[in-house]
Amino acid sequence: MQRLREAIRLKRSELRKNKSFSKILHHDNAPAHTSMLVRYFLAQTNTAIRPYSLYSQDLEPCDVFLYPKQKRPMKGKRFATIDEIKSESKSELMLNPKSAFQKCLGD
């Protein structure tokens, strides 16, 4: 987390200059994100946590609609390289019609 904060500090200097800016973390409540160590660090650095609504189509429509369709055919397959994963993912993604993307993104 400290490396993340430092990277944000270096790359987004305009946020430091904004006096009304406060640190807010949005995460998915995975066990690694809610451990005592992480909660202690966030409390010590005065970082607020934005609540995460599980399965909210308003927050992340692709997480709810598009990605499960893409992952299902790949379930259980083994890949030797990252490039194989990318290629298979792209192939599965291209099988979705344009209307599926429009529905997912609300256009």
User: What's the count of strands?
Assistant: 2
Q: Spell the H/E element sequence.
A: HHEHEHHH
**Distance from first to last alpha carbon:** 35 Å
Biggest β-sheet: strands ordered side by side in the sheet: 1-2
Count of discrete domains? 2
List unreliable stretches of 5+ residues.
none
Q: Biggest β-sheet, characterized?
A: 2 strands, parallel
Helix tally? 6
> Which outline best applies?
elongated
* Rg over C-alpha atoms, rounded to the nearest angstrom: 19 Å
Protein architecture, described:
This is Transposase. GO terms for molecular function: nucleic acid binding. By secondary structure, this protein is mainly α. The chain has two domains: 2-50, no CATH class; 61-105, no CATH class. 52% of the residues lie in helices and 6% in strands. The protein has six helices and two strands. It has helices spanning 2-11, 13-17, 36-44, 61-71, 82-94, 98-105, and strands at 24-26, 48-50. Strands 1-2 form a two-stranded parallel sheet. Helix 3 links the parallel strand 1 (24-26) and strand 2 (48-50). The longest helix is centred in the last third of the chain and has 13 residues, at 82-94. The mean pLDDT is 75.
